[in-house]
Amino acid sequence: MAPRDRDVPEARPARPAVTELRLSAFAGHRSATHALGPVTLFAGPSGSGKSTTLRAYEALARLGAGDPLDEVFPDAADHVPERARPDAQGRRGFRIGCTVDGPRGPVRLDLAVQAEPRLRVVGERLTAGGRTLLSTALRDPGRNAVQAEWHTAGTTPVTRAPFPDDLLGTALLPLRVAGKTAGQLEVLAAAEQVVVGLRSAFPCDPRPERMRAPVPPGEGRLRRDCGNLAEVLHRTRADCPRRRHRLAAVAGAGCTGTVTGLGVRELREGTVRAVLERGGRPVTPLGRLGDGELRYLGLALALVTGPGVLETDRIAEVPDAMQSLTLLTDGLDRGLDRRQVGELLRLAVDVAGDGHVRVAGAVGDRAVEEARRTPGVTVVDLSA
Questions:
Q1: Model-level pTM?
Q2: Contacts made by residues 303-307, CB under 8 angstroms, sequence distance 24+
């Protein structure tokens, strides 16, 4: 007899990815939980919290990479909910979290941050399979540390130690846990899955004014402002023909006139300039394109090139096949016409199909209709 659907175990993602974002108390968000699919767009009127939602995601990603709290939240007080009242000691803060799914199943990370009177982590919890694997709490406000406890499952069921109050404890676990007992291995696996999933984020905000000028050739890793787009094209021009063909097709679909390719020209002064190739006709330097076309090309390049060509905090000890990329883009449709938005969304769904790329973005009202009728795109309406 064939097994019934409920008897078939659910397939786990091969690559860690953030599948849920929680804004328990963050700026204007209260008890907000958002499921994140391969391509998720946040919509709503101005002030509904689209940018804030993506900012929370990026903050978690940076903490997962080991950035200190004051660099991630230089304006921490702005993230405290307006109606939050200080306690007797004058303390106010915010709470955010996420779920990272992967080979170990869903792992939850929840973080409580004190913004006033001094910025610090006051609580963190890492859970998986109904078990608390790590918890931290502020025991002594006079010390720059929180008390951490993590699951051991050996002769000593729990290990305790102080952790700094300005770093994410989950990111520190691989340096603190020996990995000798089954419990320690469980903690390490969960922590590493969360860190890998969070560090896959690449915030992308193409800035046309920085994309027009020639640039020196170099390492060729795309920056978040896409200002070195020509450098990236120069380094990757001998790469996969299929990738180049796809990029040319995308450029042709979103730019004016006949486009047969997106290439580079080496200039006498040693710099390189990106150009649109016109199939036997004179090339068009990207400096002559409009802002919308340049933003479109920057986002398309980020989607097509993938993790290895982006300026991300890569994890050398994790094979590329086990890493993914989550493109974070606020105002994905800014300056774009309807045709360009549609082409980008279809490209995003297509490249997300192999599991290497995910997208979390925000769009304005004009792009919502196009997003809703694009199969594979999830729209989260924050005004609802």
A1: 0.91
A2: 303/327, 303/344, 303/347, 303/348, 303/351, 303/357, 303/359, 304/243, 304/246, 304/247, 304/250, 304/347, 304/351, 305/222, 305/232, 305/236, 305/243, 306/351, 306/356, 306/357, 307/200, 307/202, 307/356, 307/357
Which residues make Cβ contacts (< 8 Å) with residue 173, sequence separation at least 6?
Answer: 134, 150, 187, 188, 191
71-85, 117-131, 149-163, 258-272, range with the lowest pLDDT: 149-163
266-315: pLDDT as tens digits: 999 999 999 999 988 999 999 999 999 999 999 999 998 766 666 555 55
Quote the strand ranges of the chain, DSSP E.
17-26, 29-35, 39-43, 92-101, 107-116, 120-128, 131-137, 145-151, 158-164, 201-203, 261-266, 272-277, 284-285, 325-329, 357-362, 378-381
